[in-house]
Write a structure and sequence with these properties.
Two copies of one chain form a homodimer.
Chain A lengths: L2 E6 L5 E6 L5 E8 L13 H8 L3 E2 L2 E2 H10 L3 E6 L4 E8 L3 H13 L5 H17 L4 H13 L12 H5 L3 H11 L6 E6 L3 H12 L20 E4 L5 E9 L7 H12 L5 H8 L7 E7 L4 E9 L4 H14 L6 H19 L2 H15 L5 H9 L3 H10 L6 E6 L8
Chain lengths: 410, 410
């Protein structure tokens, strides 16, 4: 039996925890509703710069002292800005969990956002932005999301050169004050922990933080648009996206299973039929992505320019052919892979903390292992095919990056 | 207390196992002495092609049936060719461990190496080789190793176009027969396991395999050579390598601690002094690499071409400045990070199986957690500085990839 706990404080902050017996580590993850979708349109890149500035001095500590204090706890940590959420995660020995959370209360509530750090942080963000020009695989996926999702959902956290150039400390400070507050904030913890003590401790750190309403950004009406980006490359990069259902939808496990048939394990269809049989690409894969209100399938592959046309056509064929038949045995293999992965993730405190936070954000509750295993076990080829006929792979957004455009019909 | 077991069968195969209590998974790793260093000079890329061909049919199963059988066990697996070792690793539910090992006995001992699969596999290997032309960070590190290590140690597993073109099934079969044998083969397993049963089971699968002597390749005399590769890129890529001690050396922990001061945690010197203070690069890091007979430090960074000269100079300064002084407090932080990482790795069965195999290969024994923790605890700034004075960072091999060469003096 899993020991999962949750408590929502009166200011709207939710604490989730899972006690994982027999481990000595603990991992945590803060999810703040301040992803790049909330960046003001003239300040794209703000969330990314803010996430880095927040750890450059907070509470009683300047930048150097703060970083040293976190390292002294043996903390393996990261900050990142996604589309909707800014995340602060860390993992260390269980005995260092509460001291680490104490420092994060400073980071989230009492950051210095120091003027002299802005320029170095801006330079880093510019480097990060420019470096994707040299990373074709990352580049094609960034462009795919921009062309597939409406604004601001399709944004890349890296922002734009103009957006980064426009940032000032007062602007960043104002954005911080509008978005950093406890309502909707999630703190998820997994590992060797004591629930009552943790709940009281987090209450003492964050309980007196006052909520403020945060407006949601409007989502612009949008028509996805395929496209080609010309670049002299040794490989043509291909990104494909199409709509699926979100995690909250009753068809979620069927959708997840269908992606598994395409891309889970080495006997999956994309791997076998496109990579192994024809050697058309080294890397190929399809992934299910979900937000609260929408789910999508995103595929990546890349191959030699003279074979790229065949690679695209064969890949699209596998996507659309799925609804024509799925064998019991191939679904059994997908189920075996999904269930083994579930159990292996359960053995990592970091993965577990991330899953608690993600479930709560997407569903407003935490799924147990038993629930997920039962849902996977109950899938049949019929469920997958019915789902694929209701929500067929079509209206593909296709973005290519390479020496020449490709053509397709769907 | 850790439960670590080992048994060397009469044919030279070593089985290592660690029972990890309270997990439901098990992970394994086979290490075969057939890395790319053993490739015949006119067949570079052979090990990589062989590792992929081995899983395309073995024992009673053709390629498709073999992949399906492994996927049906929920196995998350990978094959790879390193410099010295070819590795086959997998992780799944503990109850599927023995069935998985049974299939791997076929893969290692009774592969089909089927003629019709050669061409698709060769195409994949070519794609993999060509794709690094579009990945500047990978490219600069491949070139760095070629110029820093003597042949065949500096080889990249991807081989060459000519080498891949020359491969035939008889050539591959001959190489397989010369190198696949039990003497020196390591099988490491970690997770929920029963030692006696595992030892007997592995004995039944592999005990009657006959050893043959495998000649070690000669290592050519060599002088490392720095160099620049011209390419129109948005970032100049920089790789730096220099000699350290191998893991078997008494100074190993001091060398590892010194790299930690450079690159462990966000308060490490490269991160703080080059990245944060000056914003000269987005990514920077130094890593300790060890083989049986030699250790090296390998650094990577990359930045804007107009700042790349400053980036290189500041990075080199940090490397050479280390021996001028290390503070007790900064070493304490490195120790905290190394020890937390040790314990977190201990909680992953895959990481644990990999560590057992690596220790055995490099040292001929398995280090316990207590031993490693005690060695880290006992480090003082004096140990690190004494080591750095005996084995100073110098004679750097520097490889750059970008629009213009850089200059340096050391």
């Amino acid at each position: 039996m899993q020991e999962i706990y949750h408590h929502t404080y009166s200011n709207g902050l939710t604490l989730l925890a899972e006690r994982v017996p027999h481990v000595r580590s603990a991992a945590f993850s803060f999810s703040v509703r301040c992803g790049c979708a909330y960046d003001p349109p003239d300040s794209l890149g703000l969330a990314s710069v803010l996430s880095e500035l927040l750890v450059r001095g907070a509470g009683e500590r300047d930048s150097r002292a703060l970083t040293s204090a976190l390292d002294a706890l043996g903390l393996d940590r990261s900050e990142s800005a996604g589309v909707w959420l800014m995340s602060f995660g860390g993992a260390t020995l269980a005995r260092n969990l509460l001291p680490a959370l104490t420092i994060y209360a400073d980071i989230l509530r009492r950051p210095h956002l120091p003027e002299p750090e802005l320029e170095p942080v801006r330079q880093l963000a510019l480097q990060d932005l420019q470096s994707i020009e040299d990373e074709p695989q990352a580049k094609v996926m960034v462009e795919l999301r921009k062309r597939h999702y409406p604004s601001p959902i399709g944004r890349d956290y890296r922002g734009t050169e103009e957006g980064l150039a426009s940032l000032t400390i007062p602007k960043i400070q104002g954005h911080y004050e509008r978005h950093f507050q406890p309502q909707g904030l999630i703190l998820a913890v997994a590992g060797d922990l004591e629930w009552n003590r943790l709940r009281d401790y987090v209450g003492a750190l964050f309980g007196d933080w006052r909520p403020v309403p945060v407006p949601e950004p409007p989502i612009a009406p949008f028509r996805p648009q395929s496209g080609h980006l010309e670049k002299d490359l040794d490989q043509t990069q291909i990104g494909i996206a199409y709509a699926s259902v979100p995690m909250s939808h009753p068809d979620f496990y069927a959708a997840r299973g269908a992606v598994g048939i395409l891309s889970e394990g080495m006997s999956s269809r994309l791997f076998t039929n496109v990579r192994e049989k024809h050697g058309l690409c080294y890397a190929i894969g399809a992934r299910y992505e979900t937000m609260r209100d929408r789910g999508n399938i995103v595929c990546y592959t890349g191959g030699k320019p003279d074979k790229a046309q065949e690679l695209l056509v064969r890949t699209l064929h596998e996507l659309t052919d799925l609804q024509n038949g799925i064998e019991e045995e191939e679904l059994q293999r997908v189920k075996a892979g999904l269930k083994a992965a579930l159990i292996m993730r359960q053995e990592s405190t970091s993965a577990r903390a991330g899953a608690l936070a993600s479930d709560w954000y997407l569903l407003g509750r935490v799924r147990t292992m038993d629930e997920m295993q039962a849902a996977i076990d109950s899938l049949t080829p019929r469920h997958l095919i019915d789902h694929l006929r209701t929500c067929p792979p079509r209206d593909f957004t296709i973005v290519t990056l390479g020496p020449a455009p490709l053509s397709w019909s769907t």
